[in-house]
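Encode chain A's predicted structure.
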Amino acid sequence: ENALVSGSHCKRPPSLRYRWPLALDLFVEVFRADRAGCVLSLFVSIVERTGNTFEQLLLGTRGIGTRDPANIEAVLSTQFNGKSAHFRPLLGHGIFTQDGAPWRFSRDLLRPQFMETRFKSFAGIQEQIEKFVFMVKSMSDDGVLDLQPLFFRLTMNVTMSVLFGRQLDTLEAQSGRDEAAFARAFDYAQHKLAQRGRLGVLYWLINGPNFRRSCRTVHEFVDAIVAAALEESDCLPSPSGAEERYVFLRALISETRDPRVLRDQLVNVLLAGRDTTACLLSWTFYLLARHQDVQRQLRKECTDLPSFQSGELPTPSEIKGMKLLANVLQEVLRLYPSVPINSRTALKTTTLPMGGGPDGSSPILVRKGEAVGYSVYVLHRRKDIYGDDAELFRPSRWDPGNKEGPSLEKVGWGYLPFNRGPRVCPGQEFALLEASYTVIRLLQSYQGIRLADDRSIQEKQTVTLVVANANGCKVILTQ
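Encoded structure for chain A:
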């Protein structure tokens, strides 16, 4: 360790200050902020007053907090592990809790579904979203409509249909359980996982009967799906041609028939497929309803599509060419990244390139077993990267010729909505395609979308493994 410190010229970073022994006051502050729906804003204020990289001594255990892009790059690219034990009660041994060879196996297994077949799956995405738009039209005459729970239902339908070859109503019949009960259990378990993550080495303190019951409800729902798929796989003929639709669960079964392995991977993909895209859509329409000028410009881009002019549905090539839509989604993901908080644990004693010394430019030491926490939510609000208006929704900042703030053409590791490096999300293009099509079709269907309450309402967030709007997305739709 001494040789590493000397050879790397490591220096100590600033320390996070506390008032109570063992930093108990910080835990109290974090849990209070979480209940009030403002825990991410608290993290922003902590970093603003402490520094971009700092050391913390929580319950006697040293760790590092950072929002330096160079440090995050090092953490995601070198010898660090994730919080597998914290999240295992719900996620088991899936891609989000794995490292090393098991993680590489899961990544290689998932990548074909998300990368190679994203456009082959377009018809399935299209079918589910068109059903969703029809349902919204049937409900919007009643006045105020909360889009957020509908988006969660939509993304569940898309995930089930496209990734697992099932319709949700079929799954409910097979499982013998209500999807709403499953969704409630899934939400509750995720919230507890987030709390376990914030407790660090004391994660085991959050393991109460409601948490265990929620995990069991999720597992039983998915176990029924797996059992049905295994039974059906014995009767299915072998794929006969290149046009056979790729089904993720079927591909997994070709690799293993272990029900536990199948369930764990399925729960991990359900989390990625349902929650992240649903939150992206909810924040998108919340912001569009608050920024009518952007909404009008984006609606024009949607209604100017040749397919719309000729009475047809949007095509993947049209979606790919929509610059304003891309900017809007980039800006939403900047302000509300799908996974706002993360951390990794050092597998061996190592260094991070930034944060040490008075000016923060020297490397710092990270000992084996110490955690490095980073918040993409906090990173994306750095004014030295995004300008003085970093807290504001301004899609034009992503224009190549942006004159209103810093150029983002080389933002690199300063923008991480889907991670980067080896840990980059394999499903990002699939998620963006799903979100883009949904935005287009709703804006094509309605002449106006405004918040149900135009008064200034304090934003509140629900942070689980993702960040959702605690107030929902309550809007009034005008055809």
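The radius of gyration is 23 Å.
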